[in-house]
Specification:
Blueprint (H helix, E strand, L loop, with lengths): L2 E7 L2 E8 L6 E5 L13 H4 L4 E5 L15 H14 L5 E6 L1 H12 L4 E7 L23 H12 L3 H5 L7 E6 L8 H10 L3 E5 L6 H4 L1 H13 L11
């Protein structure tokens, strides 16, 4: 059963879906640009068997507020405020594309809040060629001004974001979409290398891994979340 809720963080209404046992470990899921919490519906039931799953609508998306003020840092702060409001001290965090950027920013700044981190086809924070997106026709389920603001940041990221990947302490799984993805895969591999406890797995489904190959994605992520901590090596002598 999926429950629909909303809370206010610093005056911004954040809508979210919750499912799974209330006493299970919390898993917070952050969607890609232009999506919302429902984008996870195909895999959330698998995670909800052993996790309390929280799927958010980030600001400017879906049923959350469209306040007109947008940045990846504001989204990071919204998620942190969400964790505080629900008294979620330490969580597993999963982000796709833009949601993955928000996730690693939070893990960089508040490493003590993230137990395990899953990044699905997330671009490394390096400058890239800037392009102007074309607004889709018809009524949108997201704020177009948000798209323009976030795209500018992804095209020209803060140079500190790359350096601070080394601050992430969470065990991290980076899921790459392979050659069919528009996201440069060498950058995804580098992102995984820069995280101290990071590793990369490729599911050659393109950028939309969890919707194109939901069973394989869910299985890969759950195996990672359920895996035991590797023992620290014993020094010789």
């Amino acid at each position: 059963m999926v429950d629909h809720h909303a809370i206010h963080v610093e005056g911004v209404r954040l809508a979210y879906q919750a499912s799974g046992p209330s006493d299970a470990p919390p898993l917070v899921m952050l969607h890609a640009l232009g999506e919302d919490a429902t984008d996870w519906d195909v895999v959330a039931p698998v995670f909800a068997r052993s996790r309390r799953v929280y799927a958010l609508d980030l600001r400017g998306h879906g049923r959350s507020d469209w306040p007109g003020e947008y940045s990846l840092q504001r989204m990071r702060d919204d998620v942190l405020g969400f964790l505080d409001a629900l008294a979620l001290d330490r969580v597993e965090l999963l982000g796709h594309s833009m949601g993955g950027v928000v996730a690693y920013l939070l893990a960089e700044d508040c490493p003590q809040r993230v137990d395990r981190l899953v990044l699905e086809d997330v671009p490394i924070p390096r400058p890239r060629e800037q392009t102007t997106p074309t607004r889709p026709a018809g009524k949108l389920t997201f704020d177009w001004d948000m798209v323009l603001a976030i795209r500018r940041q992804i095209d020209t990221p803060d140079e500190k974001w790359l350096r601070r990947l080394s601050r992430i302490t969470a065990r991290t799984l980076v899921v790459a979409g392979g050659p069919r993805s528009h996201v440069p895969q060498d950058g995804i591999a580098e992102l995984a290398r820069r995280v101290p406890d990071g590793r990369v797995v490729t599911i050659a489904a393109g950028h939309l891994i969890h919707s194109s190959r939901p069973k394989e994605f869910a299985q890969t992520v759950m195996e990672f979340l359920l895996s035991e901590e590797e023992p620290c090596p014993v020094p010789e002598g």
